[in-house]
Amino acid sequence: MNNLQRDQSNNNYDNEIDIYELFFVLWSRKFYILGITTVFAFISIQYALMLPNIYKSKAVMMPVESGSGGRVIGQYSRMASLAGISLPSESGSKSKEAIARIQSFEFFSNHFLPNVMLENLIAVKEWNQENNTLAYEENIFNIESNKWVRKVEPPKSIIPSPQEAYIIYKNIISIEEGNDSLFISLSIKHKSPFIAQQWVQLIIDRIDYVMREKDKQEAMKSVKYLNSLAPTVKYEEIKKALSSLQQEQMKQLMMVEASENYIFKVLDSPIVPEARAEPQRSKIVILFTMIGLMLSVIGSLAFHFLKKSYSHS
Prior knowledge:
Elements (H helix, E strand, L loop, with lengths): L2 H26 L1 H21 L4 E9 L5 H14 L11 H9 L2 H8 L5 H5 L1 E5 L4 E4 L4 E2 L4 E2 L13 H11 E5 L6 E7 L2 H37 L6 H23 L5 E5 L12 H32 L1
Helix pairs in contact: 2-10, 3-9, 4-8, 8-9
């Protein structure tokens, strides 16, 4: 047997010894490993059970197609500009504008927050399923006196500001668009399934109202503006263009007033969910148990080899 073969044989022997040694160390400390893993599993179970249920209510919607006003404006805008008339052009999709508004602080502070109870957004501790009541964090909101009792430092105030509440709002709301933007899902997470459903419906109703009123005011201003320009225009083609634009703006006003679904057509209305969305307690327990197992194994091996190196020194 040459030297190379002898060294290879010794290395294989050392590897076998190392694997056997590792197995022996782990087996000799099996009760320690089992104990640590059990402690982690027990703590994770207690922690998972302490977490309140979170429910998610979701609505699926489809954008309502806009009328032909934008096409008419585009058709005559160049001709009208010859007479020194500046006409508005359609900019972007109304559904995308509505989505941006829903997520904005302006919409939250002016249209969402005034229609909800602030304590239901910030101070809810848990929901009682038996009598459909809410329990609040006692160190934040006192339900008996109906007063905020939390202790905060400036610039925060005892009563949460709209900006502070907006942060919570952004965390519980979710808007997802399909790849082709044909379908939109709007969801809210809350400890009460009833509140989650109510808030989704509230957002749908309020954004429809906001967009409807905005377009109504713009159409009325456009009609008024076009009416004031008509007597000053001398070119016949421009007069025809203005007449067509006036007709389109009147159609816009009629659509704003008459259409039941102005921005979104609701395909799947929000419901009161029976099953919780969070927490996933089984995953929490499995994760913490695996962490306990790994820590106990690493600790056992580290203790053994430290003790071994110390005894040889």
